[in-house]
Amino acid sequence: MKKIAPLIATLLLATPASAHETHADATYMANEAVLVVQGDLKIMFDPFYQSGFGTYPEVPDDMMKKVMAQSAPFDGIDGIFVSHVHGDHFDGPQIYDYMQINRDVHVFLPEQGANYIRELARDDDQILKRLVSFKLTEGGAPQKQMRGDIEADAVRIPHSGWPTGRRDINNIVFRVTLNDGVTVMHMGDADINDQHYAPHEEHWRAKHTHQAFPPYWYFGNEEGRSILTQRLKVGHATGIHVPIKLPRKLAVSDYDYFSKPGESRVIYLPEPTDDIGDIGQ
Of 4, 25, 32, 93, which cross-links 46 as Cys (Cβ 3.0–4.6 Å)? Predict the structure, then answer.
């Protein structure tokens, strides 16, 4: 049985880092799709994708209907983040359709995905101006984009399988701060190798990440755990990209992870500390 990290109890007593909100809420949609809400700000990570290919869960039909109808809790979505252009993370036509419905949403994504949607949108300037693309290179400097009260930092970390495969895929680790309050990190399918992270040490230390969403396989790997706790120093981590058939080692572990659509976590806002962080064990 999964356990929510003991850190949660202590966070209840912590002084909030934001003067506006004391917490945020994360709701699991499926695979690597997560809704994060702080106050009036709402963002989704990887909500639209072509298929789970029979291995990974897909967003339930009733939930996706709410997304497209902009029904609670998916009303007033301010930002969508795309970690990378793979069929189980990205569906260009569906994103385009949603941008036509929600004329206020900004979409943060790698240039690969932006080019695809630009082809669909063509002369629709109202959509084109809401694409927030990142042209990142492997080992290149982080980039920052601001849209309203959304601050998005992006670093290209190679897709899992590096160095022999998928090097053409621009996988982004997003660190997103909402309204100067909660900071969350979505890692896409980031490869487990500290040599990708070490050159960006100053970037990781510049801001405290309250909640990270790494692919679950980071928990079962010593270097992966070290990246989360020692390098990124995240406050808490909840694993995503969990297969439909739950890996036994994960099921019997104390690590925190999402596996059922509709699950949720509360993200409290403690003051940044110098401890090594918590990944749910």
Answer: 32
> Any idea what the Cα angle at residue 116 is, between residues 110 and 121, rounded to 5°?
115
Task: Map 20-31 to HEC letters.
Answer: CCCEEEEEEEEC
Considering the chain, what is the average pLDDT of its residues?
89
Give the burial string for 177-207 (b: 16+ CB within 10 Å, else e): bbbebbbbbbbbbbbbbeebbeebeebbeee
The CB density around residue 161, as the number of other CB atoms within 10 Å, is 12
* Closest to 267 measured CA to CA, from 48, 40, 18: 18
The domain over range 7-268 is classified in CATH as 3.60.15.10? yes
Position 162 scores a pLDDT of: 76
- Between these two residues, 117 and 7, which has the higher pLDDT value? 117
Instruction: Read off the pLDDT of residues 71-84 as tens digits, 9 standing for 90 and up.
Output: 999 999 999 999 99
pTM, two decimals, is 0.89
Residues in the chain: 281
Mean pLDDT along residues 222-241: 97
Let me know: does 215 contact 258? Beta carbons within 8 Å.
Answer: no
Per-domain boundaries in the chain:
7-268
Residues 57 and 64 sit within 8 Å (Cβ to Cβ): no
Q: In what order do the strands lie in the sheet with 183-186?
A: 143-147, 150-156, 172-178, 183-186, 211-213
Chain centroid to Cα 209, Å, comes to: 12
Cis peptide before 163 (omega within 30 of 0): yes
